[in-house]
Amino acid sequence: MTVGILGLGYVGIPLSLAISDKGLRVIGFDVSEQRVEQLNADQSPIRHILSEDIARMRHQGFEATTDMRRAAECDALIICVPTPLNRQREPDLSFVVATMDAIAPWLRKGQLVSLESTTWPGTTDEILAPYFDRAGLRIGEDAFLVYSPEREDPGNTQFTTHSIPKVLGGVTPQCLAAGQALYEVFIDRIVPVSSARAAELVKLLENIHRSVNIGLMNEMKVLTDRMGVDIFEIVDAAATKPFGFTPYYPGPGIGGHCIPIDPFYLTWKAREYGLHTRFIELAGEINAGMPDYVVNRLIAAMNAQGKALKNARVLALGIAYKRDVDDMRESPSVFVMERLQAWGAEVAYSDPHVPKFPDMREHDFDLSSVDLTPEILAGFDAVVLLTDHNDFDYAMILKHAQLLLDTRGRYRGQSAPNLYRA
């Protein structure tokens, strides 16, 4: 069997590795010539995946290409392309549609197509299935179509692509059976559900669950700050209850490609059914407001030291969306940096995993990471801890920063004249 992976990013590359390790031939497709050249040169573009892993996969027969005509060689095609929001915060399926347009001429009998990109319930049936009809392929008889949401967690060493259970829904029972035959080769446990639409909803529920609970903690954080109580102490203590409580922690916002995006996919689709998902949208509003809250806390802290934010030099510590990864997607750190600039501050950043600020569709910073030394830290009017990478020397940072604002609870239980919390 030959498997084609469409989209070689944080989902497609680990998936390619998992499939290749089980002895299947893998062809990786991407529109980026740079990404294709990088992989074919045995270089990993993602920090938590080693170049040695790419070299092993290449030795096992993997090759990357921009030539979509080679989709005809593949017995299975797995789509792992981005599904962002547009400027109106509505679902943007342009990458999925462009991918289907590119492979449509090469769809053939016997092929299985699986969509793994997060999307609104009904996408597989309403957007992908018509391509099969136009190709003269009967779904469930001539070719097969399934939805199986990705569950990658970049940087998480406890769970791998192999060991994370795989939810799978087919357009027909025959499609589900074909999908199981593929995925059970390289996934330890398959979780079949009744339809592709059900599988699409599973993915949304997983991340809406996190968004809502993080929103609750962020709202609690604002309240406890007013009360002069440490929210991290409260959560840690509540987490000692062995049942009925799951700890979630506040921060400067939410990031990654899932949690800030997925709720809007469901709220958008819910309008088709005449429903207004107020609870989900409220959590989104709270989380989206946290960068402004961080900046306001910084303004108050600087005022307490007799300084103004305008023309101040501010260092952002950590700009990846979470600890110990290089993933910048929807990072709340970037939104904080933009708001600091809007206030007239001179912004710099330090992140050991992001040496140069990447090209991003909605953000433009011509910056590189600065080294953290006592002299450099002391040269900034304020340092804002936004992503608490383990590589940071936190004692040195606290000792030499003129003003340190902690948004992650890294300094919980500590006090210092220059330490503030947000």
Quick one: overall form? Answer: globular
H/E element sequence = EHEHHEEHEHEEHEHHHHHEHEHEHEE
Gyration radius from CA atoms, angstroms:
23 Å
Q: Into which percentage range does the β-strand content fall? A: 5-15%
Helix proportion: 25-40%
CATH class of the largest domain: Alpha Beta
Mean pLDDT: 95
| CATH T-level topology of the largest domain | Rossmann fold
Task: Output the structural class.
Answer: alpha/beta
The CATH superfamily of the largest domain is identified as NAD(P)-binding Rossmann-like Domain
Distance between the termini: 53 Å
Unreliable spans: none
Order of strands, widest sheet: 3-2-1-4-5-6-7-8
Task: Please indicate the count of domains.
Answer: 3
Architecture of the largest domain in CATH? 3-Layer(aba) Sandwich
**Number of H- or I-type helical stretches:** 14
Largest sheet, in brief, is: 8 strands, mixed
Q: Tally the beta strands.
A: 13
